[in-house]
Amino acid sequence: MRVIAGKAKRLQLKTIAGSDTRPTTDRIKETLFNILAQDLVDCDFLDLFSGSGAIGIEALSRGAKAAVFVENNKAAVDCIKSNLKITKLEDSAMVLMMDALSAVQFAEKNGKVFDIIFMDPPYDNGFEKTILEYLEHSSVMYFNTIIVVEASLDTDFSYLDDSILEVYRTKEYKTNKHVFIQKREGTK
């Protein structure tokens, strides 16, 4: 696994052993960042369920102003810190070892607001639903904040039909998908 573009282009990243994390493939990562390209420069990026930190590191490498990495697995947190050191991006990063919901609440208490929120929770456990329901009324989002959820192909987001959040784009791959979500027009 490597950084695809930007300041840290081509640098190899570490991953943790075992199946606790599923690193996003370079091809999928490149597609994701091509979609987000216009919104990355000088953005504040939140990477929930960070794993090795590859997504947030790619965002920093491509021009994000700052990134917050959230992971509750100690080995993964150590991996993120190592990857930030390898890429020399640690000055623009904050790593939080806690669960995703606690991290969002921590960010609220500290006045943090994000332009892009990415999450790659363990598949088919409903974690994304819990986080999205909380984010719906959270102060960590601007009106135009982009939320991207990496999920299994069969993850259902129809519960957002009754939400102020809406799916505005879905990009499917062979084994998973990226779901792009923002607040509905006319909501605050």
Give a nutshell description of this structure.
By secondary structure, the chain is of the alpha/beta class. The protein has a single domain, classed as 3-Layer(aba) Sandwich (Rossmann fold), CATH 3.40.50. Helix content is 30%, strand content 27%.
Which radius of gyration do the C-alpha atoms yield? 15 Å
What is the mean predicted local confidence, pLDDT? Answer: 89
The H/E string reads HEHEHEHEHEEE
Q: Estimate the helix proportion, in percent.
A: 25-40%
CATH architecture: 3-Layer(aba) Sandwich
CATH-level-4 superfamily name = Vaccinia Virus protein VP39
Tally the helices: what do you get? Answer: 5
Number of domains: 1
Which of globular, elongated, flat, extended, rod-shaped describes the shape? globular
The span between the termini is 39 Å
Poorly predicted regions are: none
CATH domain topology: Rossmann fold
List the strand order in the largest sheet.
Answer: 3-2-1-4-5-7-6
The strand count comes to 7
The biggest beta sheet reads: 7 strands, mixed
Question: What structural category do the secondary elements indicate?
Answer: alpha/beta
**Strand fraction band?**
25-35%
